[in-house]
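dude i think i finally got it to work??
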Amino acid sequence: MKEKATCFIITPIGDKGSEIRKRIDELIDELIAPALEKSAIKLTLCVPHRNYEPENITHEIISHLLHDKLVIANLSGLNPNVMYELGLRHATALPLVIIAENGTKLPFDTDKERTLFYDPELNDIDHERNELVKAIDAAFRREGKDNTVTRVAQLQAIKNSSLQNASDLIVDLFKDLYFKVEDLPNALEDIMESAMYRELNGYSFKTSEDTSTKSLIQHLMENGLIQTANVSYKDDYKLHLIFPKDPTLKLNQLKKIISGQGIKAYDFKEIKGRFPPY
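look at this
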C-alpha cells in the first residue's frame, strides 16, 4: 500500500472538555500544525480524535501508523496506548518524530531515541516551532530507518545472511551512519543554541510606558531577590520579566515591594520557560 502524504499524530487525548484535551489541542494548533506548514515536506495533518468516531478509531489508527508518510508521537505522560502505537510505527521503519513535555522521564528502551522536549506552557513557541521543523526534516533524511527496532533487525539479519546479503546490509548501516555524521553540524548548532538559553521561573507584569522601574529593579538586585530582569516596550505599555534568585520570593511579596516603590503595575503572571541571556 502506498504511503499517504499525511502526518498522523499519536498522543494522549483525555476526555472531551478535560484539561488534558485542552492542552493537547493547544499543542497541535500552536506548535505542530504551524511547524508542518513551515516544513519542506508538505503533508496533511491528521488528528485521530478530530477525524474519526470512537467506534472506528482503532482500525484507522493502525492503518495510519503503517502507511502514513510521517508520524509525530507525543510521549508526555507515557500513555500506554501511545507507547503501543510508537512500537508499531518503529517496526515500519518510516519517518517518525518523538516529542515530550520537559521533565518527561522516558523508558529505557526509548530514552536513546531523538526526542524534542517542549515547554508545556509554550512560552517560547517560535523557538520550539523551528526545532520541530528541523526534527521533521531530519526524520526524512534518516528515512525512518534509525530506531531501536530497525537497529536490532538489521544486526540479526546480518547474523543470519549469506556473505553477499550481509555485505548489502552493512552498506545500508554505513549509509545510516553517513546521514548521522552529515547531520552533526545541525546537532552541534542546536546544542550551542540551547546552551545560550536558560530554564527560568519568574513573574511578568505591565506598567504604563512612562513609568520608571529602574530603581525597583536595582532594589531587587541589591537585596539579592532576583537574578535577572528584562524590560521591553510594547504598543502602549512596558512588559517586565522578573526572575527571582531566591525561590521563596512569592508573587504577593513582589506585589508589595512594587506597591511600596509607588509603582502602579498590573496583569501579574507566573512564567516559566527557556529564555535567552540578558
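The chain has a mean pLDDT of 80.
im so relieved honestly
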